[in-house]
Amino acid sequence: MNPQLKHDERVFDDSTAEGRVVAQFPPEIVDDLPGTISEEKWQNIYEKLLGLNTQQKIRLAHIANLPTRMLFIQSPIKVISLAVLKNPKLTESEVLRYSQQKNLVEDVLAAIAKDPKWIKTYPIKLAIVSNPKTPLSISVNFLSHLHDNDLKAISRDKNISTVLSRAAQQMLMKRKK
What is the pLDDT of residue 142? Predict the structure, then answer.
């Protein structure tokens, strides 16, 4: 693991250090914004984020507001998108939205699937299994947690692996015996 990343994680253990990190960034990318965001404000946030280097983005992902997290979860640099999952502001509905996205990095889906905080929720389990980007071993392991009607839907889904589809069919047949 990157020693600098370990250092960044330690920074958040100290509340005064966290305050210094928060103070580094403009409030519109850290503070939760009320209501909806105008296109102009969204563009302003996006431009500020483009100017940050990778290390700053990783630090910011730990404390970012919802619009910033939504951008960072899409990052092709997986340490940035994985850092979003460590943000204490992250909600269950947000994680559900992320687990349904077909363009996420596999490692993000795997990290969601391995976090006990998130996998206790049935809709997240279903989204993880249904997402074609989820590593096959994870999807197959979650099949036993799904309801019959969801297994049926997965067995017919043309967007997922045929291996997963067959495993869902076999799971259904076992349950009917």
Answer: 96
User: Helix, strand, coil proportions of the chain in percent (round to 5)?
Assistant: 70, 0, 30
pLDDT in tens, 19-48: 445 556 766 667 665 566 677 877 877 888
**For tokens 């279903």, what's the residue?**
126
Q: Which two tokens stand for residue 52?
A: 């940050």
Residue 165: partners with Cβ closer than 8 Å, 6 or more residues away: 154, 155, 156, 157
* Cα dihedral value 75, 78, 94, 149, nearest 10: 110
> DSSP readout, 20-85?
HHHHHS-GGGTSPPSS---HHHHHHHHHHHHTS-HHHHHHHHTT--HHHHHHHTT-SSHHHHHHHT
The residues spanned by each domain of the chain are 1-90, 91-177
User: Contact 8/24 with Cβ under 8 angstroms?
Assistant: no
| Whether the model pTM is above 0.90 | no
Q: Is 115 exposed, middle or buried (0-12, 13-18, 19+ CB in 10 A)?
A: middle
- What is the dihedral angle through the alpha carbons of 126, 131, 132, 134, rounded to the nearest 10 degrees? -90
